[in-house]
Amino acid sequence: MRIPISWLSEFVDVPADVTPEDVHAALVKVGLEEEDVHGFEVTGPVVVGQVLEFTPEPQSNGKTINWCQVDVGEAEPRGIVCGAHNFAVGDKVVVSLPGAVLPGPFPISARKTYGHVSDGMIASARELGLGEEHDGILRLAPLGLDPEVGTDAIALLGLDDWAVEVNITPDRGYAFSIRGIAREYSHATGSPFRDPAAAVTPIEGSGFSVTVDDRNPVRGEVGVSVFATRVVRGIDATAPSPAWLVGRLKLAGIRSISLVVDVTNYVMLELGQPIHGYDLDRLSGGITVRRAAEAEELVTLDGQRRKLHPQDLVIADDSGAIGLAGVMGGKSTEIGHSTSNVLIEAANFDPVSIARTARRHKLPSEASRRFERGVDPDVADAAAARVVELLEQLAGGKADTLGSRLYAATAAKPIELPNGYVNAIVGADYSDAETLSALEDIGGVIEATDGALLVTPPTWRPDLTDKATLAEEVARIVGYDRIPAVLPVAPPGRGLTRQQRLRRSTAQVLAANGLTEVLAYPFVNSASNDTFGSPVTGKVPAVRLANPLDGEAPFLRTSLVPGLISTAHRNLSRGLVDLGIYELGLVFRPESGRTYGSGPLPSGVVRPSDGELAELLDSIPPQPLHLGALFVGAAIAKQPGQPAVQRGLTDALDAARQVAIAVHATVSIRTGSHQALHPGRTAEIFVGDRSIGYAGELLPALAEGYDLPRVTAVLEIDLGLLIDLAAREVSPTPIATFPAATQDLSLVVPISTPAGEVLAAVVQGAGELLEDARLVDDYRGSGVAEGSRSLTFALRFRATDRTLTAVQASDAKLAGAALAAKHFGATVRE
After folding, report:
1. Which of 77, 208, 243, 639 has the smallest C-beta neighbourhood within 10 Å, fewest atoms?
2. What is the pLDDT of residues 601-629, one digit of tens each?
3. pLDDT digit string (tens) for 105-139?
4. Do 48 and 157 contact (CB within 8 A), yes or no?
5. Strand pairing class (275-279; 342-349)
6. Spatial contact of 68 and 79, defined as CB atoms under 8 Å apart
7. pTM score, whole prediction
8. Is the bond preceding residue 77 a cis peptide, omega within 30 degrees?
9. Domains present along the chain, CATH in parentheses
């Protein structure tokens, strides 16, 4: 929200020498975050001039320029070249003299052009930063201005004004207005507040037919609670908007369109009430507020033909829909240059309905932003009267008695605030007088009872719903600096759970091995879930969101891999080609045929019962904790004497083993298959007989489809299951004091026999003397029968109480070989 200071000063006392930093500091005190400062960026001598004479001079390029003599209040007139033709002798205009700087920046100097020395520039509204239109120079008479020649035009046109911008949180919709910001500035500084709504004289209106025919099909509520209309006749719709109005709108971030539209936007910014104007003569009968009919269409003011949804709240006349309520009006009743009679609408619509319509049609507007956050239902009459007042003053209109008023807003209910509650929840010591004063300052109506205050929130604060929100207001108004900084003390006997500790260990070990943790959005499309959510081809059950942020990704993920692929693709496109990334996160695995999240939600006012909590938990799909990792590019970069070492399947398997060690689990690797992974380059990971995940390289065609390198390795394991299967108690291994005996064992086995299973048999057979065993070679070739392969294992033996002899180590090795022979027909290769 941008707040022009001259506008703010109308409703609250602002010091004449105030700076943007001062205003921002005051608003920060009451919880409004500072954003920026805006101004017109016009400096130097910019004055009112009067055209004394001009001579049209055709040029060789086909253009005709005017050589003008302009009186700027000096002893002699100035000669100025001007390319515009929308002025006459005697017109008063704005002249930028040499030394001035216009927005751009565009410095003005005397320069030779078209055979003359142009001693300044006659400026247009665009060149001054007052608007986007450039139909010629800015003439002051149509703006209702007749100043003395030589008058400072910067002050005259309000170009010396500036605006501060603050960020408005969604719960404080009342601050989307100068009225609301002025009230907050008053809270922060103690300056008296003058309510602009109270300064408007209400205008009675009756006789115009307005019918509400609505019941929200989803929420069961009427979509409109206030609907006021007033009529102004005989306006001049072609009259220009005055400079002060255009300037304030510009500083507030809204461009000038036409006088009537500018007035409605001005009142919306001033009072926070969105206003819509209709060409009364283009209406067919009265107005009906209803839901859209099936297949109904509407051409909105932006010229787009929109197919309406049955939940859209529309404004209609006898011809059909003429506007999307609270979002955008329709083209058929648009106010144009020929408009003479205007119907003004000031309404209060259901925030949820407006928010859904705006998102459904991807049509955010200044009006919808305010309705979504809640508009004061009691300001509609004042806003309509204010529009009528301005149209009478600026457009020559005349207020008519035709109009209507519907008011069905629900009165705010008193909130009980127990004595001492604010101090207890905030942790500060507020006196009763401070609490009472703060609640009165925000507009609350207070009644004292035994042991509590009954506080009725003001109509502009729909966010005040319970005693906690009232306590927050007391803390905000009295000052956040009154809240003491106290370091909480953790109660004894608390700490991280086993799963939390092991999850942290997992993250630490992966980061220590050079991987980078990422967080991806959990929203994906159906194809991604089907491809990565199951090792076999087929439709994967998934949770579809009722109101997705992105219509192309409406499902919750069943795998972490799509998010990792998206992250890798983004980094690769920016030149980061060597990546090792991982994510720890939940995936969503619904049971086939079940519908989740369809039941009513608890109110939130009180803590749900155990039964309600159980129902809520049952309405949520299973969400196992997964670990995903992705590897592309070089693990070791090319350098002198060292070729590049590319990442691949081995990196994914190493990561799985490192994670298993971190959580005190033992995993085995077996050849596996997955629809998204390369055959022969895919491994399935087990703890005992339980499969916990897969590692492998993406199918080349799949990798190419995602614009990834041909070799892209991924890993995904069910980390929650791995932790559950891991050892609960881990005994430390004592430091060995006796030397180790190392031997190699080469076994010939059928080529289809998994190496991991052979290694497991060797380990089991070798017994307790075997300290470490790992596969170091897989040979297939000369000396090994066709259909077989030679697996070489490096074995390390050690005893805790003696030095082993070579014979003892050999016996243990042969015992392992014997068990492998028994299970797989392995033979020792000499």
Report:
1. 639
2. 777 778 888 888 888 888 889 999 999 99
3. 899 999 999 999 999 999 998 888 887 665 689 89
4. no
5. antiparallel
6. yes
7. 0.67
8. no
9. 2-40+161-189 (3.30.56.10), 46-156 (2.40.50.140), 206-407 (3.50.40.10), 420-482 (3.30.56.10), 498-597+610-725 (3.30.930.10), 741-828 (3.30.70.380)
